[in-house]
Amino acid sequence: MRGVTHARGAVCAVAVALAAAGCGGGGSSSGTGAAVLSSSWGDPQNPLEPANTNEVQGGKVLDMIFRGLKKYDPRTGKATDMLAESIRTEDSRNFTIKVKDGWTFSNGEKVTARSFVDAWNYGASLRNRQKNALFFGYIDGYDKVHPARGEQTADTLSGLKVVDDRTFTVRLGQKFSTFPDTLGYAAFAPLPRAFFTDHAAWLKKPVGNGPYAIQSYMKGSQMSLRKWDGYPGPDKARNGGVDLKVYTDNNTAYTDLMAGNLDLVDDVPAAQLKNVRSDLGDRYINTPAGIIQTFAFPYYDKAWNRPGMEKVRTGLSMAINREQITETIFDRTRTPATDWTSPVLGTDGGFKPGLCGRACEYHPEQARKLIKEGGGIPGGQVRITYNADTGSHKEWVDAVCNSINNALGNGKACVGNPVGTFADFRNRIGRHKMSGPFRAGWQMDYPLIQNFLQPLYYTDASSNDGKWSDADFDRLVDRANAETDRAKAVTLFQRAEEVVRDNMAAIPLWYQNGSAGYSERLSDVALNPFSVPVYNEIKVS
User: Fold this and answer.
1) For residue 7, what pLDDT is reported?
2) Distances from the Cα of 96 to the Cαs of 89, 112, 160, in angstroms?
């Protein structure tokens, strides 16, 4: 999900101007004397409002400065209680939530039940145009606060009630048995009063309740976070802070790591994978993650949404030689996708290898036949849009296009369409300006099969960037969410996934491992199941 290059001197000059502590590899320290590490990063698409951040770079910061009712275990991904003292329900529809005592925001304000209720009401409101609003869609009153059409007729969700300083209740519009497991997602984070009383100031320097506090941020250069000594949680930072340095080319970040100018690269570029083991030895991390890469389609473009186009999309999928591409480009850090979820879920959690069937295998002759039967590629050429700044996307997009061109016997059937930066890329998607397929990698928000399906393919869902819609899929998802038996719920979700397959709503490409490399200054470096560094556990020598 995640150019211009930054020399070390330029970045350090900015850091000095911001009173941030030094540069990577230089033994920098926080105000309390603890060492600070530096890590590669990219500017987030939007200001860091929890309910308005649904991409990886912003999510990394939210995970450092906020803690919610639940937290996902950095090794297993299991949802465990953090600020929740208890979450009780007798019917999977009405929940009573009690917040632990003793928690505050980094500005000293106490975290209360109202901190959550006010934040959720803000996130759900149509007026606030939050990208993650639909995460609150199961709470009673959402249709009044965020109607599909027209003006909102209520300011707050009727399903949220503050009982006392530490207790609130949630009433859902239907049964949702795994609702508590979703509450570790950043959209459900609490917010301090300062967020509402001086919103502009808060956006410039967000205040949270996590193990780190933001010290400074200069867009395009660096965000400096420092350990918050008053953090009451069990997962306190073991370092003095993190300087997140903006790179528009992760090859440059890797070069800086090797030169001793950067401590941590959390996305090793494809061009370096052949050398990374010899370069870094056991300081190279390659571990499974809840990430799948796909191609999405602009269903708001009638050319890609006319009858028969499911055959064209399936044909394009069958023209992609996933085995060859993952072997030659990604050197064992990707695995060809055979469904629309992730192996990290396990088969009990909903991963069903082979669900895609032949449609995700390389069959060039069948690909040509299906594309012809479906009426051909709109405009005669597939233009795959991707961001060119990070992720080494050019290499694999070019490889995919070469595979499609070879399968179709047409050297111009597919071309890459690069966009300069990730932020520009996401803005074009948000404005529905795509005219063909575009890369749509998905990093899970929480480890449930529901999260790989509903946010991406449910009608008007928060991350349904292509605006695909299917009534059968929606009905199956609704039934699965209401099912209290987890195994039965998984089966219903897989039936919904079959609807995605039969329409080839998006083309699954490969499951992605998390990869990272780090300097000799660091120890206890690990990636969580979301492929994000567990920053608070890193030690700096």
Assistant:
1) 31
2) 7, 14, 10
* DSSP three-state, residue 357: helix
Helices marked H in 105-153: 113-124, 142-145
6-28 burial, b if ≥16 CB within 10 A, otherwise e?
bebeebbebbeebebbbbbbbeb
* Mean local confidence (pLDDT), 363-369: 98
pTM, entire model = 0.79
Q: Is 190 helix (H, G, I), strand (E, B) or coil?
A: coil
pLDDT digits (tens, 9 = 90+) for 306-322: 999 999 999 999 999 99
Query: Residue for token digits 């519009």?
Result: 173
Using alpha carbons, select from 107, 100, 115, 293 the residue that is nearest to residue 196: 115
Mean pLDDT of 154-175: 96
Measured CA angle at 206 (ends 202, 210), to 5 deg = 145
- Rounded-to-integer distance, Cα 295 and Cα 386, Å: 10
Mean pLDDT of the chain: 91
User: Is there a contact between 43 and 387 (Cβ–Cβ < 8 Å)?
Assistant: no
Sequence-ordered alpha helix ranges (H) in 199-339: 199-204, 250-258, 276-280, 309-318, 322-330
